[in-house]
Write a structure and sequence with these properties.
Chain B: This is Actin-related protein 10-like. The complex is a heterodimer of chains A (449) and B (400). By secondary structure, chain A is of the alpha+beta class. Chain A is 16% helix and 31% strand. By secondary structure, chain B is an alpha+beta fold. In chain B, α2 crosses α3, α5 packs across α6 and α9 packs across α11. The chains are: A alpha+beta (449), B alpha+beta (400). The complex binds zinc ion (ZN) (4 copies).
Amino acid sequence: MATFATVDLVKYLCTCEKKFPICRLYLCKHCLKLRCIDCVQHEVDTPYCPNCLEIMPAQEAKLKKNRCSNCFDCPVCGHTLMTRASGHISPNPEDPNKSVTKKTYYLACGFCRWNTRDINMLDQTVATGNWPMLENPHVKRINNLLENYKLMAQVEKADRERKKYVKRRSHLYLQDKFNLSPSVMKRKGLSSFSSLSLKEGDKTIEDLEPSVPVESFDPLPNDYYTQPAALEKTTKLVHRLSVPEFQPEDVSKLHPINKHLIMKKSLRCRECEHNLSKSDFNPCSIKFKIQLTALHWVPEVRIMTPSTFTYNKETLVTLTMSNPSVFNTTVTLSQIENETDVDYCTAKVELPKKELVLASRDEPSMHVYEDSSQAHEFKDDPKLIVFRKGNKIGFVVKVTPVVPQGDVKICFLLKHEFRNTTVAALQSESKEPEIKWLEHKVYLCLGTI
Amino acid sequence: MPHFEGLLGDEPRIIILDIGSAYTKCGLAGDTGPRCIIPSETKNPRNQQTSKIWDYSSTDELYEHLKELLYTLISRYLLVTPKDRRVVVIESLLCPTDFRDTLARVLFKHFEVASILFAPSHLLSLMTLGTKTGLVLDVGYQESFVVPVYEGIPILKGWRTIPLASKAIHSRIKSQLLEHGTVSTPEQKHQPVASMPDILTDELLEDIKVCCCFVTEYSRGQQIQEVTMRGGHANKLPPPPPDTDYQIDGGSVLNISGRIREHTCEVLFEQDNDETSIATLLMDAIVACPIDTRKDLASNILVTGGTSMMPGFYHRLQLELSHLLKKPCYAQQLGIKRFLFHKAPAKENYTAWLGGALLGALETLPSKSLSRDVYLQKGKLPDWCCIDSDFLLEDKNSKS
Ligand SMILES: [Zn+2]
Ligand SMILES: [Zn+2]
Ligand SMILES: [Zn+2]
Ligand SMILES: [Zn+2]
């Protein structure tokens, strides 16, 4: 049935001129314009661990490189590791005749059976918080380098302030030497880098130990020539790349991986910077504090049943339209002037000329309505409005394909009343919300000839 | 939460991005390694089709794919708000203009970043050593690329590239398997791989390379090339290492012969008709440089790129170079006696990224970057990728 399964058949034109199914659009209530995923700003809201659902404050998440300290992933299959306890019986230090049971913990994967004892990691005496972390062996060197570059950058900055317009002489000399014309240097963006290399004259850099080069390397161990590749002892590339700073080649060097945090994100209108979607702070909650999806504000058009089409012959197609608003909503449909693009329009369409009135959405009584009484209440023309049920109507359009084959596509302009029911808007003098008219271009793909 | 960060008085950290032809490295300035190394590709959530970033037919397509890739990086790995953040983009000196333009468009227009600095990968790699002079060899996916850098400036005459890298190894494995590889399925043993070529996906070839293959030792390599390149008799081949049974999906076993394990990486060192290999690439680069720079370059070689992490690579390269040095054509010209290699404080596949992370942590970054304001004002990237101070002065004038 039409667009429930294939939402792509009916698309609305976003303000940015891209077409999306209505369930993927937002309506900014401040600009009163549709927004899509490409014309909103994405923001980090709250990082949290997908396993223990603990929220981590942004600062802490930064320090911990977005990883949870208590949850671990299996380095082999990525499954969450479980903490397992095991008891050891050891003699009681106070009374040698008695023994005590000591509990120790290790991590194990319930899926592929990998565990921390496989890699000879010592069991821990406490269940959480004490697992050893790997440390990049180059940390010290990198920090030394960074400190030196920072000093040089300070010097460079001061230098630049001092002689803004004087060209560096050494620079010109090198350009001469390597036949580098200034334009080549500029184009390749090289000139601004030369200043970053260490200069002998500079006083600030002497504490950095120079990198020591080597002349020869060890040959491969003989096993490479005499043994088959030890596949069960070798990690796959994905395992290596999941820990970029370590990239272990040997399975015994794999280490539990601290679970990566995920985040709740919020969306903001690019134009007015108001929030379009903001989820509840609590990671367990699936609710939203703000959720301006267009589905809640814009009447949704669907295709009722598939029809068969013939070239140049009129076919009646039933579409449905439902009203998301708690007010009765008036809608008019009209042709889009000068839509000539055959990519989106391959048939002539005759639309209902009269205004269509959609009943309000009223959750509790949604299923009690009776077709006839409602039709009577709204004085529906049965030729036009095929049925009416709650906030939904079925209406007929006449479609005449103008291409001999291919998809039958139509488009029209949908104008509807919109009542801004945000608190702020309601607080203004009149109790009744102000009525605005919004219009959207709707594109439908009805089927093939 | 940008406001939150502001309150606590520390600047949002700079995004360091390196979109390589096979893998993308991404992280934050000041870190000791990237947060992630993921394939440079995007997956369509509906049909699960992957599209490689660099295989683009139009810049519009590239734009969409870059948007997807960056969205993944930012929202899954970095967890930061991209708006008003600075970005360092690490790029190859060979990066095509349309790629750079499109990337700038995505970053500035879609993600609204504050500024971009495009930084050449070879210079950044050298930054991780703290030296200003060196011969930087990048053995990546598409090609191997050597750039001599002297006193912080790349010597244009010395740039050399050759299409010998990971991709060449993969296609060598593939052709060898198709030629004489066998696969045993539960139904039938020892079928030729050629009868089911579809099993040889890019991922499989890469994994075979990583898990089974190695760069053999120099003298064995010479013997192999004598047979495979110069038509020597097959009995001259060194005894091959044992075959390896490689499990593939569905209970099938692919037989990886010892010859495949040992011979495929030879593609990097074979001197074909033009007598070019990775080793000659380095030699020729040095020869092209001014004579008084050669000794410094030869004694400061830095190798980067994931392919150089193959077992045995350094040992072989070093021996190849010292043998080339004995050849008359180089011996007379070069006037150097030995080669010295540096090891960066990083794995080869993210050395350039680490240089970017160092550069991005410096206070001079803003003055070298292209700001969004200037970009939007000009409507496009300037012809050059980093900005000189005069360009920025213009910016300041327009603001005041
Ligand atoms: Zn949009
Ligand atoms: Zn956790
Ligand atoms: Zn596992
Ligand atoms: Zn807005």
